[in-house]
């Protein structure tokens, strides 16, 4: 089995995949220094066309995925406070085994979110 990291974003306000949400993937060093690895956008299915990390990019370590939630909901003119309650949602996760599959989904509204480790 080849390792990879993927994501999927579901918009719980409109009941659909979150299309065209900006996502950033960051590597976190032991001294908390952050390095931006990728900036991607979700497609019509709420997934990215490119994996967050493919088999050759997998490394043991700590990562963060930043989901740009307020910009996404603003594109629908969804009612949000100013400043937005949820602007960017960070999810920090660790990769312990580079041969594993990691799926980092996000279920989101302007007021709440949920995630879990998928496969």
TrEMBL record:
E.C. no: 3.5.2.17
Q: What is this protein called?
A: 5-hydroxyisourate hydrolase
- Where the record annotates domain Transthyretin/hydroxyisourate hydrolase, the positions are 5-118
Task: Respond yes or no to whether keyword Glycosyltransferase is given for this record.
Answer: no
Give the catalysed reaction(s), semicolon-separated.
5-hydroxyisourate + H2O = 5-hydroxy-2-oxo-4-ureido-2,5-dihydro-1H-imidazole-5-carboxylate + H(+)
In its UniProt record, a GO molecular function of this protein is: hydroxyisourate hydrolase activity
Listed CDD domains: TLP_HIUase
So what does this one do?
Catalyzes the hydrolysis of 5-hydroxyisourate (HIU) to 2-oxo-4-hydroxy-4-carboxy-5-ureidoimidazoline (OHCU).
Q: Does the keyword Hydrolase apply?
A: yes
* Quaternary organization: Homotetramer.
UniProt record, GO biological process: purine nucleobase metabolic process
What family does this belong to? Belongs to the transthyretin family. 5-hydroxyisourate hydrolase subfamily.
Q: What is the uppermost EC class here?
A: hydrolase
Residues in a coiled coil are: none
Q: Which organism is it from?
A: Pseudanabaena catenata USMAC16
Annotated keywords:
Hydrolase, Purine metabolism
Q: Which PANTHER family match?
A: 5-HYDROXYISOURATE HYDROLASE, URICASE AND TRANSTHYRETIN-RELATED
InterPro entries reported in the protein's UniProt record? Hydroxyisourate_hydrolase (IPR014306), Thyroxine_BS (IPR023418), Transthyretin/HIU_hydrolase_d (IPR023416), Transthyretin/HIU_hydrolase_sf (IPR036817)
């Amino acid at each position: 089995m080849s390792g990879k990291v993927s994501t999927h974003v579901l918009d719980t306000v409109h009941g659909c995949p979150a299309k065209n949400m900006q996502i950033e993937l960051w590597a976190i060093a032991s001294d908390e220094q952050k390095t931006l690895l990728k900036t991607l956008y979700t497609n019509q299915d709420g997934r990215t066309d490119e994996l967050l990390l493919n088999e050759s990019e997998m490394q043991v370590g700590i990562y963060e995925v930043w989901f740009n939630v307020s910009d996404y909901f603003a594109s629908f003119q969804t009612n949000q406070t100013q400043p937005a309650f949820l602007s960017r949602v960070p999810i920090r996760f660790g990769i312990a085994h580079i041969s594993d599959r990691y799926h980092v989904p996000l279920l989101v509204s302007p007021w709440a979110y949920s995630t879990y480790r998928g496969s």
